[in-house]
Write a structure and sequence with these properties.
With about 140 residues, the chain is an all-alpha fold. It is built from three helices and no strands.
Amino acid sequence: MMTNCEAVRLSPDDWVGVMTSMDRGDQPPLTAEDAAELERGRERMLARHKLIEAMIRNNELQLRNESARGGAEIEMHCALRDSALPGTGAAALLELAQATARFEALKVEHERLVAEREWLNVALLEFESGPSTYDHNRSGHA
């Protein structure tokens, strides 16, 4: 026996039967076309959610990159200072080259993340401005 707290999972095909069997007041029964439109709206909402999740991941990666770049820049400047000391050998120059390479690689990754974020912003704007059949029925920003 199902209690009021248990969740019921319905397939898209079940929507028509459930919605027509429920008391809908003065509204006509839900048609297969309406059920399909509801499913398209659900898919659209999930796609928007995935875009927003990607933006959150991108933000996290940018913050980590910024921290790593700061550390790499400090290491690079320390290696530069050490390599400029009199009597430094090949090891100091190698350390400078490695620190510089790490810093440059992190800069390239930063540029990639910024480009990705710009693409995500444009994709979300296009998504938000795209057509939706039930836009006139929505309220709020859900």
